[in-house]
Amino acid sequence: MQTDITRQVSASVYNDINLRDKIYHFVNQPFNAVVQPFGLDVNELLKHVFNSRKKERNYYQILFLPALILWISVFLAYVSSGGLSFLIGLLAFVILFTLVYIHDVSIKKFLKTNLNKNSYNTNFDFNSSNSKRIPEFVNKISDNVVFYSGYSPFVGSGLDIGGWSFVVDIDKGKSILDKRLQPSEFELTELYNAISNEINSLNIPNLTVHDKVFINGKNIRDNRDLLPNILGSPVNNIPQKYIDLAINNQLKDGRFYKVIQVVDWDGDLILTLFFRLQKNEKNLFVETNYYLLPPISSTFKSIDSIKVSSDFKDFIGFITLVFIKTFSHSLLSLYKVFGYAKGVFSDGGQAKALHKLVETSPDYDYGANTSIREAISQTQYSQHFQKLDKERYFRMIEKRLFNQIGEFLVNKNIDAAEFKERETSIINQGVIVTGGNINSENIAVGKGSKLNSLK
Questions:
Q1: Residue 63: helix, strand or coil by DSSP?
Q2: DSSP-assigned beta bridge partners for residue 213
Q3: Is the four-CA dihedral 369, 372, 378, 381 of positive or negative sign?
Q4: pLDDT at 278 > cutoff 90
Q5: What is the spatial distance between Cα 2 and Cα 16, in angstroms, rounded to a whole number?
Q6: How many CB atoms lie within 10 A of CB 103?
Q7: Residue 227 C-alpha from the chain's centroid
Q8: Given the DSSP bridges, would you call strands 119-120 and 145-148 parallel, antiparallel or unpaired?
Q9: Are 444 and 438 in contact (CB under 8 A)?
Q10: Which residues pair with 119 in a beta bridge?
C-alpha cells in the first residue's frame, strides 16, 4: 500500500541508523513468520533500507584511508612534535571534511529529489547485491494465516483496546401470531458471508474484509502443510481445508477470525476488528476484539520538517555540523571497516549457530512477535480528529454487524429478542466495553497488551 508514512519512514532510514538496522532485523530472521506491516509499502521501504546500508558502507570505506592517515599523523605529531606529521594530518583532515560535506549534501539532495512530499519518486536508482532478499521477504508476509509468538494471536495489530462477547440461544423459534416457529438450521459460513457483504456495502475507503486463521508458532513443527521444512519459514497461505476446519472450530491449535480493517490518515491510523462465531445445537457464541495501530512516531516524519530554503545562518550551522562529523566519522570509519572485515568471518558462524538452534529445538517458535508497522508506532494520537475517526469507524462497523446478525437470525426463524437486548446493552455502554480505553492524548491499553517500539 502506497502511503505517506511509507515515504516518511523510508526517508528516516538514511539518518536514523537504529531505525534502519531494526527494520533490517526483520529481513534477517530466516525461520520466522512475517506479519503484514499494515499501511506500509514494505517493498518500497526495504529498497531504501538496503540502499542506505549500501551508501553507508561505501561512505565509511572511502573515509577509512584518510582517517587512518589522520590519526596516525596526530599520534606521531604528539609523540615527536614533527611539523611534517602535522601537515600530513591537516591535509588528511581537509580531505575528510570534503568527503563528509559531499556525502551530507548528496544525502540531502537524494531525500529532496526522491522522498520529498512534492517529489516522491519510487523509481530511484537502486542497485544492491542484497536486492533479491526483498521479494523473498515480501513472499513470506502472511496472507490467510498468521503464525504468532507469545500471548496474543493478533500480533502486529497494535494496541488491544477491548471488545465484547456474548451467547445467543438459537434453539428458540420466533413467534408469529402466538405461534412459535421451528428454527432453521444454518452453517457458520452463511453468516460469515452475509457479514462480509454487509460490511463491504459501507463503501468506506480503504476498508478490507479478510478471512484469517491464527496459529501459535510453537505448534507447527511437525506439520508439513504449515511448515514444509523445519529449517525454513512457515507458509503464508494455508489450504482451504484448514480454513474450513477453523471456521467450524475443529482446528485444535488454530482459530478463524473475520478481519475487518480500516486504514486511514494515509496509513497513520489503522483500526482492526477481529470477529469470530462459534455454534452448537443450542447456542451461538459471538466474539469481537478491537485493535488500534496509532500513528508512527513524529521522529520518523522529519523529512517533512526540512526547510524549503536556507539562509546564511543555516549554512554556518551546516558547516559546523560537518566539522564535528569529520572528527567523529573518521573514528567511526575505522571501527566500521574493521567491523565489516570481522563480519565476513563471524556472520557465517552466527548463521550456523541459529541453524543449529532451530534444528535441535523441538519447541522452536516460528511465530512472529511484532511487525514493522507496529514497531514504529507511538502510544498517542497525533490529532484529536484521529480519536473521533476511530470512534466513528468502529460504531459504523459495529452497527452493521448487529443489523446483519439480527436479520440473519430472524430469517432463520430464531427468536432475536435476546440478541437485541445484548445489542442495546453494548451500544449503550459504547463501542468498547471491556479492556482498555483511549484518551485524547495518551493511550491506556488493556490487560496483557503490548506495543513494541523502535524509539
A1: helix
A2: 145, 256
A3: negative
A4: yes
A5: 22
A6: 20
A7: 23
A8: unpaired
A9: yes
A10: 116
Q: What angle do CA 302, 305, 306 make, to 5 degrees?
A: 100
Give the three cell numbers for residue 83. 611539523
Q: Which three cell numbers stand for residue 378?
A: 507511538
Among the residue ranges 72-81, 190-199, 200-209, 353-362, the one predicted with the least confidence is 72-81
Residue type, 438: I
Residue 9 neighbours by CB distance under 10 Å: 32
Q: Please tell me the distance from the alpha carbon of residue 112 to that of residue 124, in angstroms, as a whole number.
A: 12
Task: For residue 361, give the C-alpha cell.
Answer: 529445538
Residue 138: enclosing H or E segment and its boundaries? helix 133-138
**CA 389/CA 47 separation, integer angstroms:** 32
Cell, residue 316: 554556518
Among 80-94, 178-192, 424-438, where is mean pLDDT lowest?
A: 424-438
Rounded CA separation 381/35 (Å): 23
Contact 455, 297 (CB under 8 A): yes
d(CA 54, CA 77): 35
The answer to whether residues 12 and 300 touch, using CB atoms and an 8 Å cutoff, is yes
CA distance 217 to 215: 6
**Single-letter residue type at 128:** S
Which H or E run includes 80? helix 42-80
CA dist., res. 241 & res. 276, Å (int): 18
The predicted model scores a pTM of 0.85
What nine digits make up the cell of 320? 559546523
Q: Which residues face 368 on adjacent strands?
A: 148
**Of 116, 433, 438, 436, the residue nearest 295 (C-alpha):** 438
What's the confidence (pLDDT) of residue 437? 43
pLDDT in tens, 365-404: 999 999 999 999 988 898 899 999 999 999 999 999 999 9
C-beta of residue 204 within 8 angstroms of C-beta of residue 262: yes
Of 218, 224, 294, 289, the C-alpha closest to 258 is 289
Q: For 80-104, what is the mean pLDDT?
A: 90
Of residues 210, 183, 197, 54, the one with CA closest to residue 131: 54
* pLDDT tier at 102, thresholds 50, 70, 90: very high
Query: Which residue from 84, 2, 25 is spatially nearest to 376, judged by alpha carbons?
Result: 25
